[in-house]
Amino acid sequence: MSKLRCHIAISADGFVAGPNQSEENPIGEGGERLHGWMLALAAWRESHGREGGEVNESTRIVEETRENVGAGVMGRNMFGPVGGGDWGVGQWKGWWGDDPPYHDDVFILTHHPREPLEMEGGTTFYFVTDGVERALERAKESADGQDVRLWGGAEAVQQYLALGLLDELELHIVPVLLGDGARLFENLASAEIELEQIRAVEAPGVTHVKYNVTRG
Amino acid sequence: MSKLRCHIAISADGFVAGPNQSEENPIGEGGERLHGWMLALAAWRESHGREGGEVNESTRIVEETRENVGAGVMGRNMFGPVGGGDWGVGQWKGWWGDDPPYHDDVFILTHHPREPLEMEGGTTFYFVTDGVERALERAKESADGQDVRLWGGAEAVQQYLALGLLDELELHIVPVLLGDGARLFENLASAEIELEQIRAVEAPGVTHVKYNVTRG
Q: Nearest chain A Cα to B193, which residue?
């Protein structure tokens, strides 16, 4: 069965982006420190058209995150500037350049209708205005039996978690204290969600912990 | 050099106690789920005078937490009822029974002066009213070259973290979402603290991640 999976880098104190996110700095102050372990990998560099890099225990983890993924879902803030602008009807094509690293259909949760945006490299952004459940349905149709990857950000993950729609969650726990920013786990007080630890992997500068997620 | 070390169980969403802590339920609703992995261990049962239990990857982790510890520091709420009572001048002897599992001197952070309280099994509780730094100094004197263990709770850990006085932090990350309660990492926005991941260990129902802590 097609799963909804989220693999996300998180600080030891629970933030997936630093404070003061802005158009200039969409991952917030210090947020780039969450991704250093990944950007150092040959596996990451190669998929972004670059040479060199490390091979270590994180390599197979990152490779696995890409396996059997047929489509994606993404919160609005991960696509466009926090707090606005007119990208909904304008020319904004996302933070991710002309050839985004998704290579399949990505469904953006938004309140602003917009025509689909076809990018280079197989990525097409679809803008879904009729709710997170519908976005997931459309992504699953597009994935055609493969899994759907929930790219983030924090709010989108919270929504799918609270609804019991997330099936798998992998935290890449980074030895950094951001102190403030976007907390991954928030607004979940009434959600009866159970986690089952599938595995944990120690790697240089990061610990990967993977959970099965079920309704309680 | 004598270190200040904290080894603490934490939910995947960052809580070290559940919501609605009370005299009847000092670890809050669901808080007992943070400790199930430990209570199942033969190593824990034996140290509490019980037989049986499991031996697994957590065993050496728990044994290590006890090694080279000569004294402890503890926040007020870990000793007595949240929000009050007159234990400061009364007969309250802590949550931990007549023979507490500490077996050495434990320094309680409090605003209420009280004479030291000698328990069975080698534990003596000292009540320190002149600040967290002084409590640590006294604990280090008592530890006589061994390490000092910071038992919790969340507030006490935050205070020592923010002051740059914590040297080692081990998180026992439990696959549970508590949704609410006492967050370990809070009030740290202005603390410039760096973590270095020393190791991570996968064990049944828990992942142990150990950090060196330094001032940034």
A: A177
If phi > 0 it is left, if psi is from -120 to 50 it is alpha, else beta; for residue A5 that is beta
- CB B82: neighbour CB atoms within 10 A? 18
Residue of B nearest to A207 (CA): B200
pLDDT tens for each residue of A44-72: 998 888 999 999 999 999 999 999 999 99
Reported as a pLDDT band with limits 50, 70 and 90, residue A156 is very high
Which bin fits B187, alpha (ψ -120 to 50), beta or left (φ > 0)?
left
Amino acid present at B91? Q
How far is C-alpha A174 from the geometric centre of its chain's CA atoms? 16
Q: In this predicted complex, what is the ipTM?
A: 0.93
Query: By the 8 A CB rule, do A164 and A193 touch?
Result: yes
Residues A29-39 have pLDDT tens digits of 999 999 999 99
CA A147, A183, B183, B136 dihedral sign is positive
User: CA torsion, points A160, A164, A167, A168, in degrees to nearest 10?
Assistant: 60
Residue among A202, A208, A211 with most chain B CBs within 10 A, to mutate: A202
Q: Mean pLDDT for chain A?
A: 92
State the Cα–Cα distance between residues B14 and B20, nearest whole angstrom.
Answer: 16
The per-residue pLDDT of chain B, averaged, comes to 92
Which run of H or of E encompasses A157?
helix A154-162
User: Burial letters for B170-202: b for 16+ Cβ neighbours within 10 Å, e otherwise?
Assistant: bbbbbbbbbbbbbbbbbebeebebebebeebbb
